[in-house]
Amino acid sequence: MFKRTKVTDGTATGQGPDAENWDGKEVGFRKKSKVPGVMITQYIEKLPEGKSHPDFTRKPIALTIQEGKFAFFKAIVTGDPKPTVVWSRNNGDVSDPARYQSKYDPNSNEHTFEMPHVKPDQADTYKCFAKNEYGQAMVTVVLNVIEVGFKMTKAPQQQAEVANCNFKKVLKRRSKVVPKAEEPEKKEGEIDPKFWELLMSADKKDYERICAEFGVTDFRWMLKKLNEMKREREEEQAEFVKNLSDLKPIHINADGTASFELEFDLLDPSSSIYLYKDGEMIPYTKELGDKMKHCLRKVGRKYIFSMRDLMPEDAGFYQLDVEDVNMFSTDFKMVDFLVKIQEVKAMEREDAVFECVISAPLSKLMWFGKNMPLEQGDKYDIEVSEDKLIHRLVVKDCMVVDKGIYAACAGIKSCNAWLVVEADKGAPKGKKSARKTTRAGGSGTDLQKVAQEQQQKLDKEREERKEKIKAAREAAAEAAAAEEPEKTADSGAGKDKGAAVEVERIDKTSVAATTTVAGDSGSGHSAGKASGGAKQDGSHADAGGGHSAGKASGGARKDGSIADAGGGHSAGKASGGAKQDGSHADAGGGHSAGKASGGAKQDGSPADAGGGHSAGKASGGAKQDGSHADAGGGHSAGKASGGAKQDGSHADAGGGHSAGKASGGAKQDGSHADAGGGHSAGKASGGAKQDGSHADAGGGHSAGKASGGAKQDGSHADAGGHSAGKASGGAKQDGSPADAGGHSAGKASGGAKQDGSLADAGGGHSAEEASGGARQDEPLADAGGEPGITSGLSDILATRGQPAELTVKMNTDCDGAWFKDGEPLKSGGGISITKDANIHKLTIHSCRDTDSGLLRFVSGDLSTEGRITVGDVPEFDEDDLHKFSKPVIVRVGQNAAFKMPFQPQESLTVSWFKDGTELKDGGGVKIVREPNHSRLLLRDCLRSDTGEIKIQLKNPFGAVEATSQLIVLDRPGPPEGPVETVETTSSVIEIKWNPPKDDGGSAVTNYIIERQERGHSLWTKLGDVSAEKTSFRDRNVTHGKKYSYRIYAENPQGLSDSLETADSIMAGIMILSGPPGKPKVVSTSKTCINLTWTPPEDDKGVPIIGYQVEKRKKDTNQWLALNAINEPIEDVNYAVKDVTEGAEYEFRVSAINESGAGDASPPSAMACAKNPNMRPCFKDPEDFLVVRAGNSVRVKISYEAEPPPHITWLKDDEPIAPWINVINTEGMSQLVIPSSKRSDSAIYTIKAKNSVGEAFFDVEVRVTDEPKCPGPVELEQTVYGKVAVSWVPSPDQELDDRLYYVVSQHDSNTRMWKTVADRLFANTYTAHNILPGIEYHFRVYAKNDMGLSDPSQSPTWGANSNRVPISSNGVSSMEISFERPPSILVPLKVHTPPKGYQLYMTCAVRGCPTPNVSWYLNNTCINSDKNYYITNSCGVCSMYILRVRENDGGEYRVVAVNSLGKAECSTKLTVRD
Fold first, then answer.
1. Which residue(s) pair with 588 in the sheet?
2. Cα–Cα distance, 816 to 1371 (Å, whole number)
């Protein structure tokens, strides 16, 4: 049944709005949001038209941010009316405006929650609530804050301590295991708390080992206390985690780290996880990787704790807690080697033994051979002694290839030794030597003696712990015995405590229930007798739990009250007095063998018989005035009795623990008369009541009798007998149950009822009898009194045509009658009615449909009934069954179908099974059920689907099954390996294999064999053999060569997968070469080490193919091959390039022949991979550099030196300015001036110095620009035929000492300009061969490293310059001019070069004066771009690209400009991939 729940938001105090708006009391309906993770509550069932509850269209996103950053969440909500948005957090307050700010942007409809300068304590789960009058939407989001520096807790006041790594002051949390430094002084024999923590995390198979380790021998007590602690721990764990499983104790991994694992789900993701070692919290990391020793990683649900760099001090007791609750505990132990393994020298085909002794028992060591882990198998035997201290590794059938280093590892401790295998020189040539039965090796010491001494030491420590525990228990027992006489016992109670501190043995008895429904006879666990009283009103009559050998009975009642017999634990007798006034008469807890009885009362006051502790008699006096008459607690052997009172005063029978008798007094006034819980072997009975008060037969723990009193008013009379006696439930006349709950090995039966209801017999566990008594307005009726039904009728199913029998058993011999559907039945007509003493039977000889109905048995006022239903078991038609039984045969990938008809029936269940497993509809299985048949379809059958198919028809009357077979045909499986070598000689190799496990459903016809020679890739078919033969002889082999074989099995469906030999098989025996000479180191560098060696002196008569070189790094044991055996080095020298700079190596060489690699040479001397020491020297430096002013200066100097030198730069022998950058890399130094000026021109010196020497180099850097043109030019003739040309210097002459002048001359004869002087550093020039009658012109250029300036033009010199003008007499002369604007003679062409190819692009330009040509790519000038080589020769303009790139594509344009105009042409360049 579901209840409508009230939804309240999770806003804590101070987190949300006021209580008037957000009281969280609305009754809601859960609604689903379109956005995952949003919880919506709608307050009313139906929303008004146009209105809506709040919802999120964008929810906040989880955030992980560094401490001190700006954190924020954003959300967008919808709803009509507009919702109100509030933010909160799970574990804290968000009302501080300095730390939390809520904002809303009406333009974007975004709600923002900001946290400036976020701190670690703000990491939490945050909630966003959106609410209007129709509902509420809520979403959660997690904020993770990465702390700067390691902090064990998030408390701000602890951050300073964490920064100083003072974790002991910060970590105030403590586990239940106290650190050793703070551990209080233990009491002798006290058990270490580690014991219980280890047990709660261990498997049951480890309990015995842990108990032995801590000296605990009482397993019963341990298990009892452990179960209690586990229940408490599980309750605590359930508050923080769920699904805690897969606890794996700490172990050491192959990579040298230790780890333990467990799986669980955190209920709150923000819960803190803590790690402890020996009770002290240890720091760990999730993010910092190898920077910390301990790490806790989460992979799905799995949490993995690991630690690296293991040391002996890492041993200890580790615990993982979530908040304050422990989840897992494990103990990390370190063992040491008392005796280490020793070097073993073995002959070929002999067994080699390595053995060691460790300091503590360990079930398994990790063994390694040549850096590979070893496991138990055909090659290796791993043995462990019974005490688990001696460990052995046996290398069986040693061969030369088995030699190497073997190691044993126990945690972080390890030891290793060599195995040297010597060849058997006495073996016949070409054949293997015989297998030897001897063993080589061993430690050379008496391992058994060392192990016994260590075991004795461990046993001694264990016995000392046991003795301490035993002494502590004895001391506790003596202390308890001394205090026992001083203790007093209360009325109705008895306890027996053990001596040991740890052991508490408390037997409890149950008191009768107070409901007014059932009358039960309680559970009896001992040898006594417990019976329930008689009831006529539907109330309880229970037999209390009797646990001892005495007798406990409840008194009789006639008023509806409870009469209880207290728990009797002794050998005496405890009985409750009689009551007639509705008061209590209880039998108290008598602990002695005497007699304790309560006095009679008639005034309503209690008369209690207390627990007698003496051997005498304690009885309470008689009272008639409502006062107490108590018998005092008699602890002696005498008699203690309560005096008679008539005035209301006290006279109590005290707690007698003696062997006497304790009984409750008689009461008639409604007061109490209790018989205390008797713990003796006597009798405890409840008194008689007639007024509705209590008279209970309590939990009698004796071997006597416990019975419930008689009741006539609907009250309780309980017999709680837990003994082996008798417990019976009373008879009822109101339809309620009367149950006998006897838990002993006896008999339990239900009482008789007169209203047609059921009387149940409880579970009898005692050796006696527990039966329900008869209740008919009489006091208690024991078995054998009033008639009662002990075994009634129940509903049964009968098969048509089969006999059926119904039986009713009475507790007495009495008559009865049978009825069917209300009609009386008699013998005859296929029915027999018999009676045998108290057993009544009705037998139907052959059941028919007419026999179905309600049967009833009546005996006097008692009756019982049950329904019989007649039907048929399902059945199959014989023809259909025969057809179904035929097997269905299909191929792999085909569908298999089965069909089975049957007769339609009601309540029929059809099930299909395959190999006993029921098939369900779905996947590749399709099951169809029709009224008259069922079909099974198996799609895409696999070979594994072969098996038995069964259909089962089942109804309430029985089941029937039909079986068929499904056979799926497939190609066979591969032959079974491994391939055995039967014989190998120089001319024959014989191999053997086993047939395949799976023949694919059809018999194998033959096997196909293929062969591959080692070093070749081609497989050659050798032939095939019949299926009966599983061996093959290969006669076409060459001695010394190795071959691999593979075998296929074939059947009608095809070929199987191949079985291949694990290793190559050599034809003949293996003949390996001797070792070469010791390698010599020729030279070393940081990238290469050059070796050379000499061939082996003894090649064993087999040609050497090449060599294999191995290297070993210093301080390691592993040799690494530099080349494979099938890739031999043919020369006797080798350059090892796989080296690390600065590392030291040694090398060894093996000679390779057709049999493989032989013995290795002695190792070479250690060689360091570094360059030899050398004085710095510069490689191909440039000593002069010119840079245009404004551009960057970059001077690159490469050098070689070892060790690396110290680099210094100088400018004109002075330190360089700070804005000049120097970039030093390996083998190169760069000087960079970002933006140069003319003042940066200087001589820069680089100085390289190391321990060998130093070197200098000067680089002249010239920062300049194109010079300005010279001043006016003057001409003067001093000598005939010579003209002096002079000019005013260029303004840049003083700034640039490399500036010079160039003079060009033009005459009227040639009409061409030619350079007549170059590199003039003066301002004058004398021109020669100046002829008269010819005009001359001169141009003077200033030139420097950047190029030419504009020219300065001279005046005309020549004949016409001094000629007198002649009149033309009206005839005009035409002046001819050659100047013209630029024009394009040959334009650019379209180019589509592939990427990475070279490209030439040309065009032809003319013009006078000569135009200035510029190249543009996508409107960007590229004249100065070094990626393009541009030339202009006599008007032919060319551009060259060495390798075309993708970004070279685009529009290219050539622009020619002179003083008369401009011309241009363009083209496109497309780069292909």
1. 676
2. 175
Cα atoms in the 13 Å half-sphere on the side-chain side of 1338: 27
Find the radius of gyration of the CA atoms of the chain: 55
Amino acid at 811: N
Q: Residue 1402 has which token pair? A: 């040309």
DSSP 361-388: --S--EEEETTEE--SSSSEEEEE-TTS
CB 822 within 8 A of CB 855: no
3 state SS of 235? helix
CA atoms of 749 and 791, how far apart (whole Å): 8
Structure tokens at 983: 């014989």
Q: Are strands 439-441 and 380-384 parallel, antiparallel or unpaired?
A: unpaired
DSSP string, 905-965: -TT-EEEEEETTEEP-SBTTEEEEE-SSEEEEEE-S--GGG-EEEEEEEEETTEEEEEEEE
Residues paired with 262 in a beta bridge: 303
pLDDT of residue 1184: 87
Tokens 């209007």 identify what position?
132
Query: Rounded mean pLDDT of 1092-1107?
Result: 89
CB neighbours of 969 closer than 8 A, spacing ≥ 6? 889, 890, 891, 892, 1000, 1001, 1002, 1053
Phi, psi of 238 (to 5 degrees): -65, -20
Interatomic CA distance for residues 271 and 284, integer angstroms: 16
CA distance 1412 to 1459: 10
- Interatomic CA distance for residues 326 and 329, integer angstroms: 8
3-state secondary structure of 466: helix
Residue where the block lists tokens 């690159």: 1196
The torsion defined by the Cα of 209, 215, 220 and 223, in degrees rounded to 10, comes to -60
Which amino acid makes up residue 1472?
Answer: R
pLDDT band at 582 (very low <50, low <70, confident <90, very high): very low
Q: Coil, strand, or helix at residue 206?
A: helix
Q: Which residues, in sequence order, are bridge partners of residue 799? A: 871
Q: Whose CA is closest to 594, among 554, 631, 565?
A: 631
pLDDT in tens, 215-246: 777 778 888 888 888 888 888 888 888 888 88
Query: What three-state secondary structure class fits 160?
Result: helix
Q: 731: closest CA among 706, 710, 752? A: 752
pLDDT of 254 reads 66
Q: Give per-residue pLDDT as tens, 297-307.
A: 888 888 888 88
CA pair distance 866, 797, nearest whole angstrom? 11
Supply the pLDDT for residue 166: 45
Q: Is 1245 exposed, middle or buried, given 0-12, 13-18 or 19+ CB atoms closer than 10 A?
A: middle
Tokens for 80, please give them: 């009509």
Exposed e or buried b per residue across 498-528, where buried means at least 16 C-beta atoms within 10 angstroms of its C-beta: eebbbbeeebebbbbbeebebbbbbbbbbbb
983: Cα separation from own chain's centroid:
50
Give me the sign of the Cα torsion angle 1422, 1423, 1424, 1430: positive
Give the Cα separation of 172 and 180 in Å (integer): 16
**If you ran DSSP here, which 8-state letter would residue 648 be given?**
S
Are 685 and 584 in contact by the 8 Å Cβ rule? The answer is no
Judge contact between 683 and 660, C-beta under 8 A.
Answer: no
The rounded distance, in Å, linking the Cα atoms of 404 and 381 is: 17
Q: Is the pLDDT assigned to residue 173 strictly greater than 80?
A: no
pTM (predicted TM-score):
0.30
Q: Pull the structure tokens for residue 170.
A: 């910060």
Beta bridge partners of 1206: 1249
Cα separation, 1380 vs 113, in Å, equals 76
Q: What are the tens digits of pLDDT across the range 1201-1245?
A: 888 899 999 999 999 988 899 999 988 999 999 888 888 889 999
Tokens encoding 108: 């974007």
* Helix/strand/coil for 882: helix
3-state secondary structure of 477: helix
